[in-house]
Amino acid sequence: MTQPQTPPDPRRWRALIFICLAQLMVVLDGTVVNIALPHAQADLGFSDANRQWVITAYALAFGGLLLVGGRVSDMWGRRKAFITGLVGFAAASALGGAAVNTGMLMAARGLQGVFGALLAPAALSLLTVTFTDARERAKAFGVYGAISGGGAAIGLVLGGLLTEYLNWRWTLYINVAFAVIAVIGAVFEIREPAGGKHSGRLDVPGVLMASSGLAAIVYGFGRASTDGWSDTWTVACLVAAVVLLSGFAFWQTRAAEPLLPLRVVRNRNRGGAYLAIGLAVIGMFGVFLFMTFYLQVVLGYSPVVAGVAFLPMVVGMMIGSTQIGARLAVRVPPRLLMVPGLLTAAIGLVIMSQIKVDSSYAQIVLPGLFLMGLGMGTTFMPAMSLATHDVEHRDAGVASAMVNTSQQIGGAIGTALLNTIATSATTAYVVAHAHLITSSTAAESVKLHAMVHGFSIGIWWAVGALVLAAAIASVLITTGRLAAPEKTGEDEADFVPVMHGA
């Protein structure tokens, strides 16, 4: 007979509030500044070339240091890493909000990425080891999955509201308020689980190769979206990324204390979850890019209205995560939630691919966004739980970091690859319809039709990414209902408590 597990932490539900608040802060910061960029540029006077670096500085530091942040949280203890990440993120945000020149703003964004890379894996691993009951863990991951997936859309809404009604600097200052609340909550409500800190040395060669390789791939794909795939620096960065990450993988088989123990990713179910998450985010981020331009440039929405227009996706994601994923996670295997969820999201994208210059928001965009959110929410909840399932306690931080890394790399690839495809389709449309350009009015009409045609083609490729993710989930993910390991002669603290059958 299985011995009873350690009683659950009575503060766990209050702790969830502050863990999710921290995750929301990190996720929305990837988009909340985007809408404020034109105002920041006018205020600080930086060039168009430097404008991209305000976004890129955050993405490079965050994406490049996630694995390091995950391993550091395993070594320091997750609660300490969580609080340190919050304080550092708040300080960096205050520095950015007070920026008096371009260099100060870019440095602040880079520091946000550094502390975000410590905070994000610490938050997920705290969630992983705090909730031990099957149904409770499903509910907690449902809320967390909705926040993680919908945070980018929330960032667009919040960025538009803050910029239009206050000042662009508040898109950074708002993080200070979030962080202060989360730190207070962490001090009083979050406790480090038993066995939560593990001694060891940091794998310095692994750190250098992983950080450089991940940063190179994020930068390379980001540059491809603006400078093209044949650009010298684009090619050099992507080649360097392949070499560095290949070297990192080889080194992990030789290192005494590897940064990313290969036991974490060799498990076919966890590996399938990481791949499915990355491919799903490729599709989702590409659509964010297209629909943001479609709503503002083609339909003429203001930044605030365009941000609010994404809310059906957030609503769908909340329903998918908390009402479908969380309720069914203890009853069915993850694959039976992830595959239908990914295909539902794909159907939503198929609807959005039908956009025209004069399309109705209510008939095309709204149902498409809602179905995409519903499908993504149903997918992310079991995928995130599976990605940290049955992993050794000492690896919980780095396993959590892999979830964030999959999202970050997927976002970089999706934005670059789908933007390139859409741009090429737009150019081809203009060339094919050049004979129609007989006046300035006709030229504008062809331009808008070409842009929408390019968006539609890009969305179809996003559909392909989601269908591929569904295929991978159906083949690689073979586990049944997620079950907690029974206690044996080994120390119970050596394992992350995971979901067990009803």
UniProtKB/TrEMBL annotation:
Record-annotated membrane-spanning stretches: 15-37, 52-69, 81-100, 106-129, 141-162, 168-190, 202-221, 233-251, 272-295, 301-324, 336-355, 361-388, 409-432, 452-477
InterPro entries linked to this entry: EmrB-like (IPR004638), MFS (IPR011701), MFS_dom (IPR020846), MFS_trans_sf (IPR036259), Sugar_transporter_CS (IPR005829)
UniProt superkingdom: Bacteria
Ranges where the Major facilitator superfamily (MFS) profile domain occurs: 15-482
Transmembrane listed as a keyword: yes
Subcellular location(s) per record: Cell membrane
Keyword annotations from UniProtKB, A to Z: Cell membrane, Membrane, Transmembrane, Transmembrane helix, Transport
A single GO cellular-component term on record: plasma membrane
Record GO terms (molecular function): transmembrane transporter activity
Membrane topology designation: Multi-pass membrane protein
Keyword Transmembrane helix attributed: yes
Protein name: MFS transporter
